[in-house]
Amino acid sequence: AQSVSQHNHHVILSEAASLELGCNYSYGGTVNLFWYVQYPGQHLQLLLKYFSGDPLVKGIKGFEAEFIKSKFSFNLRKPSVQWSDTAEYFCAVIKAAGNKLTFGGGTRVLVKP
Amino acid sequence: EAGVAQSPRYKIIEKRQSVAFWCNPISGHATLYWYQQILGQGPKLLIQFQNNGVVDDSQLPKDRFSAERLKGVDSTLKIQPAKLEDSAVYLCASSFELSVGMNTEAFFGQGTRLTVV
Questions:
Q1: A24-50, pLDDT tens digit by residue?
Q2: CB B99 to CB A99 under 8 A?
Q3: pLDDT tens-digit profile of B43-87?
Q4: CA B69 – CA B54 distance, rounded (Å)
Q5: Chain B residue with minimal CA distance to A91?
Q6: Chain B environment of A4 (Cβ under 8 Å)
């Protein structure tokens, strides 16, 4: 069965600190990769996505992610976080067979002002 | 562009009662998903439709959950009878065909928060 792992369940940072959230998936075929964010009280929104080409993907609000195929990873980064980045972040993957969009367990990020 | 609409936003029912959720996807989106998100966990896919056909329902508890997408547009998800462990947020999402290599994404509604007491 396909699975998506997010290593940190909770992260607490101060403003201006750098953020990196890990995501690994468990199958070796061709994949599309996504990071979604859920701000308090809001619906899931897309931060960025990888579907082909440059493995370094830039998204909204200064976020970026790097697809490393050999490591089955798609880690999310932001060099300097703001209080408004407080949210829950979800990694998601679809693979070639079945096109089922599978989510990781999520990481809650709290940015202290 | 209008987003994915879901109703109701909140529902409280007693165990063994039935409940139904409604979803109206973004116009033109052929693929529709229902996810269950239990507190503290990531969304779990219950069922995926392509137009009005089911693509994947392998994680749908078919003894109590059912879903339909008549005419390939709106969808309803029903639970009958509900159990305490069904307390969760039920998310609907839609997309153009979401497949590997294609530049598409799934758009999510606000969800329905179900509490079973």
A1: 999 778 889 999 999 998 999 999 999
A2: yes
A3: 999 999 998 899 899 999 999 999 999 888 999 999 999 999 999
A4: 9
A5: B42
A6: 42
